[in-house]
Amino acid sequence: MKSKKQAKAACPCGGGELSACCGRYLAADAPPAPSAQALMRSRFSAYALGREDYLLATWHASTRPAALDLAEDAGVVKWIALEVLRCEAGLAGDAAGIVEFVARYKVGGKAEKLREVSRFVCEDGRWYYVAGEVS
Questions:
Q1: What dihedral do alpha carbons 91, 97, 98, 99 form, nearest 10°?
Q2: Domain named YchJ-like middle NTF2-like: which ranges (predicted)?
Q3: What global pTM score does this model have?
């Protein structure tokens, strides 16, 4: 039986073990996420893990902010769960894709949720987040 210390880390996106799920895309030398949904899940995990570098690297240059200042949110915002509601296109061979999701989080202990329809594009075999419409 494994101790809690030896237990494998769960992926913030809810897809299983971190190293077998989003963790395989978060490493500096990792392959790119193979689909819009995989990129969206890995970006949720990056928010949960405070990985501003990954978020900026996977944000399309046409809409990417200069910085996100995630350090200011550390200890205040806690990302809890992700639910993918629908995906349109966004697979290998597609030029674009849409992923609609609900992200649950807490701010100062108060439960909140973010529902967004995100747009992604694929350039040179790499998916990028372009923009999202919050509803």
A1: 30
A2: 35-132
A3: 0.92
